Amino acid sequence: MRLGFAVKVLAGGGLPSHDTRRWQSEPSLGVSLDHLEAILGYLDDHDIRMYRMATALAPYASHPELPQFRDQPARHAARLAEVGTLARRLGVRLSTHPAQYTVLNSQDAQVQRLAVAELEVQAELLDLMGLGPEAVVVVHVGGAAGGRRAALGRFERGFARLSEAARRRLVVENDDRAFGVADVVELSRRIERPAVFDLLHHHCHDPDRLSDRDALTLALGTWPPAVRAKVHYSSPRTNAEERRRRVGRRVERRLVLPPLRAHADLVDPIAFEHFATSTAGGFDLDVMLEAKAKDVALLRLREQLRARGIDLEARDGAPVAASGRS
Question: d(Cα 278, Cα 258) in Å, to the nearest integer?
């Protein structure tokens, strides 16, 4: 079981994930790849073998009004191949997850066109890096306008607009509001692409009342035997915040409680131990940690689990309880 994190490296003062300059400064995929290479070195130093790259690795490449940036992947093909070779040599699983604005099932034709353009760029980057089928592009189903059946149908039609290369990279994830695990598993079968299971989203939106184990089993069943399944895991934020506002001469104070869907900075090690050794026990999968503290959260979780005798990333394969805990 590999553990991964998304985009930002925070430890040791942090590392840039991509070229963030505005378009007027001519940001470059080449600069982003220099940053990515440094991150791969950091991952290797800390034995982290899973990482979600920045969606904007090729700056503005999918922007409809800046076509001069679209050929960046082709212009940097040789460098992409070099960095991809490095990732494979280090055994790092790479992926991307475009933002919530990438809505392939949108009722707005322009929004759908932009989603197609973004997914084509993401697939092209992964292909030019020479990465295998476990390097995926994760998307949500999108909007639920018109009802579940109509929304899934729109996604299928949007999916059909993608090139074969982009379709081969795409996977769908359950969300926290509209499309549960059963929905994405059904869609997965219709488009013949895997489904990513997100545990926190499942706890937020589970209209079919599936147990965690049953939901995970359904999602894992959509992955081909030769590709290790990928799941997302995060702990909900639990800290209350005090908000103040001045009313005349008085200052009113009130506590604001976080919604269940909000991600915590760190990962609850007790809950994660249960997930890894019970809910996911016996399964072969990789876990992307979606915690606000990024790599710091991963390293802290690993430290806490090992203190309890749990080594999930043991080289012999399956998660193990080194001290005999179950």
Answer: 27
Residue 24 Cα distances to 60, 66, 114, 201, 280, angstroms? 11, 10, 21, 38, 48
- What separation, in Å, do the N-terminal and C-terminal C-alpha atoms of the chain show? 16
Per-residue HEC secondary structure of 168-218 comes to HHEEEECCCCCCCHHHHHHHHHHHCCCEEEEHHHHHHCCCCCCCHHHHHHH
φ and ψ at 126, to 5 degrees? -65, -40
Q: Are 173 and 196 in contact (CB under 8 A)?
A: yes
- With 0-12 / 13-18 / 19 or more C-beta atoms within 10 angstroms meaning exposed / middle / buried, residue 153 is middle
Query: What one-character-per-residue DSSP string does 96-128 give?
Result: B---TT--TT-SSHHHHHHHHHHHHHHHHHHHH
For residue 155, give the nearest of 87, 198, 103, 88 by alpha carbon: 103
Cβ-based burial of 60 (10 A; exposed 0-12, middle 13-18, buried ≥19): buried
Find the helix or strand (DSSP H, E) in which 43 lies.
Answer: helix 29-45
* Selection from 154, 157, 132 nearest residue 144 by Cα: 154
C-alpha neighbours within 13 Å on the C-beta side of residue 209? 0
pLDDT digits (tens, 9 = 90+) for 24-52: 999 999 999 999 999 999 999 999 999 99
- Distances in Å between the Cα of 227 and the Cα atoms of 74, 224, 238 are 27, 6, 35
List phi, psi (to 5°) of 236. Answer: -75, 145
Task: Return d(Cα 309, Cα 148) in angstroms, integer.
Answer: 44
Please list, in sequence order, all residues whose beta carbon lies within 8 angstroms of the beta carbon of residue 12, skipping any fewer than 6 positions away.
none
Structure tokens at 323: 């001290």
**Residue pair 27/68 in contact by the 8 Å Cβ criterion:** no
242-273 residue pLDDT tens? 888 888 888 889 899 999 999 999 999 999 99
